[in-house]
């Protein structure tokens, strides 16, 4: 089975599917990003809530619950993961700090067309008829290199908080 990075290398994205649109610099939303609602609503909103997965539960069942949540919802919430709330607040602050940067500065850490990590639009964007109104930052392993590109003189705080979150989860991973 191929790794994710091998798959990305064999299916590189075009730059217009990587670079997020800087909506602050546009007078109106371009057609490439204009989504319309369907004329009829055959799929009413679900009455269920996003799945919540408790890591203190049965570990044998956890993998199955995650798989089901991914297949049905594409998202889930994890509770009792062991990451202290103060650390979660710090990672949220650093994330806001990253996305508050000017577009030109964020592009210093742009994900390559065949890459897995860095700044850009979600890799699922090419599967949709219109371009996404989103931006993202993916980190697998240490984000130190990207942090240095974003904040050449002040990268350690971002890197440290990311490392602290990773280290806080190690006992649960192993």
Description:
The protein is 37% helix and 7% strand. It is mainly alpha-helical and 174 residues long. The protein folds into two domains: 48-80, no CATH class; 82-174, no CATH class. The strands form two sheets. Strands 1-2 form a two-stranded parallel sheet. A two-stranded antiparallel ribbon has the order 3-4. Helix 3 (85-99) crosses helix 6 (156-173). The longest helix has 18 residues, at 156-173. The protein is globular. GO terms for molecular function: metal ion binding. InterPro entries: DIOX_N, IPNS-like_sf, Iron_ascorbate_oxido_reductase. This is Non-haem dioxygenase N-terminal domain-containing protein. It comes from Camellia sinensis var. sinensis.
Structure, briefly:
With 174 residues, the protein is mainly alpha-helical. It folds into two domains: 48-80, no CATH class; 82-174, no CATH class. The protein has helices at residues 4-10, 59-72, 85-99, 103-106, 144-150, 156-173; strands at residues 52-54, 77-79, 118-120, 136-138.
Distance between the termini: 23 Å
Number of strands: 4
Ranges with pLDDT <50 over ≥5 residues?
none
Mean pLDDT: 82
Number of individual domains: 2
Task: Order the strands across the largest sheet as they lie in space.
Answer: 1-2
User: Which range best describes the helical content: under 10%, 10-25%, 25-40%, 40-55%, 55-70% or over 70%?
Assistant: 25-40%
| Number of helices, where a helix is a run of at least 4 consecutive DSSP H or I residues | 6
Q: Indicate the proportion of strand residues.
A: 5-15%
GO molecular function, one term: metal ion binding
Protein name: Non-haem dioxygenase N-terminal domain-containing protein
Keywords: Iron, Metal-binding
Domain Non-haem dioxygenase N-terminal: 50-153
